[in-house]
Amino acid sequence: MSKLVKEMMTRDLAERYAESDNAVWIELVGVDGLTTNAFRRDLRGRRMQMEVVKTSLLRRAVKGRPLEPLADKLQGPAALVTGGDSPIEVAKLLEEWAPKFPKDSFRLRGAVIDGEYLDEQSVQGLSKMPTRADMQGRIVRLILTPGGNVIGAALGPDAAVAGLLKTLIEKLEKGEAVARVG
After folding, report:
1. What percent of the chain has pLDDT over 70?
2. 3-state secondary structure at position 111
3. Rounded distance, CA 58 to CA 63, Å?
4. Residues near 101 by Cβ (< 8 Å), separated by ≥ 6?
5. What does the pLDDT look like over 3-48, one tens digit per residue?
């Protein structure tokens, strides 16, 4: 490959990954075209993409950027999966697809999340983590639960007192005798 072509490809990669601070590195070797196309179609449907990159060009393209820690670790066949709402969603999709690939043809190798590198073992647990939407839901639930408990506690005794007062008023209106307390 000529120097001019390498420079053009490096510029293209730099533009493409300029804003990216999340990516998952996978190794996908020996997979037939039909399975690969179905996988890529599923990725596109979820606003994700997979790109096989030349590691030396990617290293130059992301130097000084959030993906640099991942680019420094790349070796051998490297495919980057980017996009989606979060890398956790990417990892969940990859785990869903892992059994569909032939044995020993698919492997999670690493990831960068918000500029921080995760090694192969850490990436395995990534799919088990809750997504951003799940965490936001949990936080809202935690915030609302004490408030609901306070309102319930405040309304509970008041409802009982209101019921007693209603009964007392009804008895007085009917002229029934009411026992005095106190």
Report:
1. 87
2. strand
3. 8
4. 28, 31, 35
5. 899 899 989 988 888 888 888 999 888 899 999 999 999 999 999 9
Half-sphere exposure of 41 (CA within 13 A, CB side): 6
> C-alpha distances in angstroms, 161 versus 152, 156, 175, 180, 181?
14, 9, 21, 16, 15
What's the pLDDT at 149? 66
End-to-end CA distance of the chain: 99
C-alpha separations of 18 from 13, 24, 117, 155 in Å: 8, 16, 17, 55
- Residue whose C-alpha is closest to residue 25's, from 45, 51, 56: 51
Burial 88-113 (b: 16+ CB within 10 A, else e): bbbbbbbeebeeebeeeebbbbbbbb
Q: Which amino acid is at 159?
A: A
**Whole-prediction pTM:** 0.68
**Size of the chain in residues:** 182
| Dihedral angle computed from the Cα positions of residues 8, 57, 77 and 52, in that order, rounded to the nearest 10 degrees | -40
